Hints:
Elements: H1 7-16, E1 20-24, H2 28-41, E2 45-50, H3 51-57, H4 59-72, E3 77-84, H5 87-95, E4 100-103, H6 110-126, E5 130-135, E6 140-142, E7 145-147, H7 157-167, E8 171-174, H8 193-202, E9 208-210, H9 218-226, H10 239-247, E10 250-255, H11 257-273, H12 280-301
Amino acid sequence: MPLVTTKEMFEKSMKEHFAIGAFNINNMEFIQAITEAADEAKSPVILQVSSSAIKYAQIKYLKKMVEAAVESTNIPIALHLDHGPDFETCKMCIDNGFTSVMIDGSKYDFEENVALTKQVVDYAHSKGVVVEAELGKLAGVEDDVNVKDDDARYTDPDQAKEFVERTGCDSLAIAIGTSHGAYKFKGEAKLRFDILKRVKEKLPNTPIVLHGASSVIPALVDMCNNNGGNIPGAKGCPNEMLKKAGEEGVSKINVDTDLRLAMTAQIRRVFNEDPSIFDPRKYLGPARDEIKATVKDKIENVFCSANKA
């Protein structure tokens, strides 16, 4: 099955009330782990690449590895640009065979965001590619995204409707309380499901996206810290909230931090238990297995997308 856009998988998710995991990739181990987990669970999956991941691994290497994963599986796989910072980056990804791109104009005012998003939408649609946009601003730090708590703001449902109508974007990332990175909540975890409900009422046919939605798995944080790591007070979005978000209208949930933790935790464990190891396969193998287990658990128990391929 060739790479697909997110159009059909999102239509199914909205109709059947489940979410699709969008997992960030940086190297071969991430790609193998994610796609093998999705294939075994018979789930559609989105592989997404940030602009910093492109700088690290190079777009042609990433694309070829994704193509190998597509040949090795029998599930719908979309290749998506995460947090595209400008038109040029989106165009580069579209021209290199991505099936979906995100243009993140949330740092601009409303009119600038509309204009930039519309520019990307016009080019992408002419090439058969779908576009995700963002309205509202999530706090936190992840790759090139860095927003202070004071600058974060919730998505306005009325603005969301106007934004989608004026830009023609295919899906919309909204801010309802999640944040990027490993430190998502200072106090009790809380998501604004009332905002999600109002957005869905105004945009019943538009797929909604949740960024900054790693659960920051406590066992992985402990494994890191117990093997020389220093990640104090890390706190993520509880799985029950993410499951509820999928049931109540979120079609795409982004995961990055949990995969980084999975890889780092196992590598730290291996090095700590046997300092003599220097064969990369002996620590990248367990790291890949941990990422796969993490993805499979989310697909089956949080996003509920198993057997939806």
